[in-house]
From TrEMBL:
InterPro entries: Cyt_P450 (IPR001128), Cyt_P450_CS (IPR017972), Cyt_P450_E_grp-I (IPR002401), Cyt_P450_sf (IPR036396), Cytochrome_P450_Monoox (IPR050196)
This protein's UniProt keywords: Heme, Iron, Metal-binding, Monooxygenase, Oxidoreductase
Keyword Transmembrane helix set for record: no
Domain of life: Bacteria
Protein name, per record: Cytochrome P450
Family from the record: Belongs to the cytochrome P450 family.
Protein source organism: Archangium lansingense
Keyword Heme: yes
């Protein structure tokens, strides 16, 4: 179909030639939300180095990520920057290769595998929670956001490598990955600069990548020599493609292992940090969580079967991921000309399903700024557009770790509610920082107080 007679989506005006990006980062999302109010759910944003079509309605998600997904691919500076570290891992691969990899990796995230992972997850969570005791005893201000980064890293390391890492190594791996992830954002903006130009942090980035590669390849080698199948990496090592009969090479395994880390640990940590930011501002929500956890678990160690009745815990996570979606935008590039809402989308144009704007769109969500976990009860979810809530993406590229992450989140909320009272520190409001994800700028600071009847601890 020829769309050339159609107009392009309206351009954000009033932005000097320099580009909208500095303003975008400075004013956070208010700038984009104001543009949506002025121009409608679809508009063009000048990013300086290129421009992008911003989409803020669930029907656009249905179009770009589901119904016409074959017309859009992961191209452009952002994905290229990710590829420098992820190689050809699942989040960045395309076409037949992506299909094959997804087929091979998917079974590692099946229901039965998640059930088998529950015990390991709880062990890792409890191990990390042990370091919270001091703050609970002394009443010292505690950065729960930083603590969640360490905790979800610990969970990923255990789920991924089993007991493959040596003492102290998990922490070092975590630090190196955190640095790499941050650096990728810089990479996205400086991609066009020549290699010889000294970009701050490049040497440290390269060292961090080298270190991660060494650790991952060492564990792959060790895994090849054993038949163990109790961790994600060993499942990938032994996976055979049902259609081609092929297995993954070491290089592919490296890319997939690193990709699962990058995609899975920071996102979950950030989501949890915002959940606590919100709950400490709405203590009645935390109190209800505690009541639910007391009723379902008492002091018992949670198992997989407990997740279903912990409905409020799940609703809290869903509502937090709505208000603060860690992956706040989903960029694509059009492979061919297309039409959205009567506008022309030229081939080669960057198109962004803007999760944050969709989650805050008042035409989609009633009182979108209100923290209200009950929105996610089955009764109140009825009739909602199925792409209204997309923190994990949509369509064929839907997050492979979605259930893993929600399960981990529920277990973490439950373990914390069993042990601690968590309250806000007056005057220490978390501030949003837009990087590769939306995290709290200087952490989320809270007070912890031990509950009088502590939860039972799993003994290995
Ligand atoms: C709250 C936590 C998480 C959030 C918000 C999140 C978000 C997302 C989003 C939005 C996508 C789709 C990206 C796109 O279409 O361009 C995605 C894909 C992906 N996620 Fe997650 N994710 C989370 C947790 C995890 C976890 C725990 C893992 C692994 C254990 C994981 C692994 C992946 C992978 C491998 C992909 C690529 C899938 C594909 O393209 O086939 N994620 N995630």
């Amino acid at each position: 179909m020829n769309h050339s007679a159609l107009a392009l989506p309206p351009k954000v005006s009033g932005v000097p030639l320099v580009s909208a990006l500095p303003r975008l980062l400075k004013d956070r999302f208010e700038f984009l939300e104001a543009a949506r109010q002025r121009l409608g759910d679809i508009y063009t944003l000048d990013l300086g180095f290129s421009d992008a079509i911003i989409l803020s309605h669930p029907r656009h998600v249905q179009h770009v990520l589901v119904d016409h997904a074959r017309k859009y691919f992961k191209g452009g500076a952002i994905w290229e920057s990710m590829r420098t570290f992820l190689g050809n891992g699942l989040p960045v691969s395309e076409g037949e290769f992506w299909k094959r990899q997804r087929r091979m990796i998917q079974p590692a995230f099946h229901h039965q595998r998640l059930i088998a992972l529950t015990e390991k997850m709880v062990e890792a969570i409890d191990e990390s929670l042990a370091s919270w005791e001091q703050a609970a005893k002394t009443g010292a201000p505690f950065d729960i956001a930083g603590a969640f980064s360490r905790m979800t890293m610990n969970v990923m390391v255990r789920a991924m490598f089993g007991s493959g890492l040596e003492a102290g190594e998990a922490e070092r791996v975590g630090q190196a990955l955190a640095y790499i992830i941050d650096y990728l954002m810089v990479g996205m903006m400086t991609k066009s600069l020549p290699e010889w130009l000294p970009i701050p942090g490049r040497a440290r980035y390269q060292q961090a990548v080298q270190y991660i590669d060494e650790v991952v390849l060492r564990i792959i080698e060790r895994g090849r020599a054993s038949a163990e199948e109790d961790n994600l990496l060993s499942l990938l090592l032994h996976a055979v493609d049902t259609e081609s009969g092929e297995r993954m090479t070491n290089a592919q395994l490296r890319d997939e292992a690193v990709s699962l880390f990058v995609a899975g640990y920071e996102t979950t940590a950030v989501g949890l940090a915002w959940a606590f930011h919100l709950m400490t501002r709405h203590p009645e929500v935390f109190q209800r969580l505690r009541t639910e956890v007391d009723e379902v678990l008492g002091q018992r160690v949670p198992g997989f079967a407990d997740l279903r009745p912990l409905t409020h815990a799940r609703n809290v996570l869903q509502e937090s991921l709505r208000l603060y979606p860690p992956a706040y935008w989903i960029p694509r590039t059009a492979t061919e000309e297309d039409e959205i809402d009567g506008y022309r989308i030229p081939a080669g144009k960057m198109v962004v399903a803007f999760t944050y704007l969709i989650h805050h769109n008042p035409d989609v969500w009633e009182q979108p700024e209100r923290f209200d976990p009950d929105r996610f009860t089955p009764e109140r979810s009825e009739g909602r557009h199925k792409q209204a809530w997309i923190p994990f993406g949509a369509g064929q590229r839907l997050c492979i770790g979605r259930e893993f992450s929600l399960m981990e989140g529920q277990l973490i909320l439950a373990r914390i509610a069993q042990r601690y009272d968590v309250s806000a520190i007056p005057g220490r409001e978390a501030r949003i920082h837009i990087g590769t994800s939306i995290r709290a700028k200087n952490g989320v600071w809270v007070h912890l107080k031990a509950r009088t009847r502590p939860a039972q601890v799993r003994t290995a």
